[in-house]
Amino acid sequence: MKYAILVGDGMGDYPLPELGGRTPLEAAQTPHMDRLALTGRLGLVRTVPPGLEPGSDVANMSIMGYDPSRRHTGRAPLEAASLGVDLAPDDLAFRLNLVNLEFKPDGPVIMRDHSAGNIPTDEAAGIIKDLSRHLPLTSGQKLYPGVSYRHLLVWPGLDNRLPTIAPHDYRDRDVTAYLHQAGPMQPILDLIRASWPLLKNHPVNRRRTEAGLPAANSIWPWGQGRRPSFVTYRERFGLSGAVVSAVDLIKGLGVYAGLTPLKVPGATGLIDTNYAGKVKAALDALKTADFVLLHLEAPDEASHQGDLPEKIQAIENFDRLIVGPMVGGLEKFAAFRLLILCDHFTPLSLKTHASDPVPFIIWPGPASSLTYSEKNGALSGFLLEQGHRLIDLLLEKS
Predict the structure, then answer these.
(1) What CA–CA distance (Å, rounded) separates 332 from 80?
(2) Is residue 231 packed enough to be buried (19+ CB in 10 Å), middle (13-18) or exposed (0-12)?
(3) What is the pTM of this model?
């Protein structure tokens, strides 16, 4: 038996007046997902347990069958695993974004873009290399380059109980008060401020500004945590497998789960990603392995940008360029089961994540006679409150 999970990050949304009260998922042309929902098991699943932040780390941990209430220690340790960084017990890992801040003449600081305009990886790598040389890093502190705006800071011995904030939660919002905290946050804020003069006239930023693009004019550490403890898929289910994603978080979850993260040339995490390459990597993995998870970040990124046309296009690309070809490839195996879902809502009205239960499809399964949408997931009458149990439905363990 072959098993596949396809995740359209952030596809879930709320009804929008400009779409006549429909959601982007309802407005998008998704014939493949609709066919699978009509003839398969449709329902809702709560991927974000009550009391936890609706981040992709929490939601995808649930999807992969791990209870975030027990296993989640922070987002950054997962990204560290993807980068091959072996954290010591005392190491605190931070996700380090390159962001664009607007410094108002009268004092306020506005978070304009959590991704510095989705800065390309090669440009970001040069910035991180220079910051590693010139930031006032203490003994043991280290920066690691990642993909696009997503990087890693390791800081030994620091207290984990720090009220850092996710920059994508504060797009176009005033972050002045946050930057003027005192107490245990002081070392983090001092490091942020130390990056400003280094980045203000950086050659990469000069070129970006001349081209009318947002400058990566600040670092932003957040999502900190220490190394978690996981049981692998081989130990739990007797399965081998792989993950396909441009996002270090997803690849890191795969590492801890004992799955192989596959590198796909041209996989960007954005709408211009290498869709065919991702599908080929996933299907090739299943020739020898039992399980694969394929993740697409593009709908989430469009939501953070507040870009409705791009979100609809990203959803349609997921359906046409990933779901359709994956089903065609899976049907060549003797037996398979497929799970399709979004990890969390990323409503355009909020430009950040929300913890609403998300619609899922398991196929083959009992016919629902409903197409794939948030509303129809609710109309199915099935709500799985413990998201980490969804893997048991896919694997038919319960």
Answers:
(1) 36
(2) middle
(3) 0.87
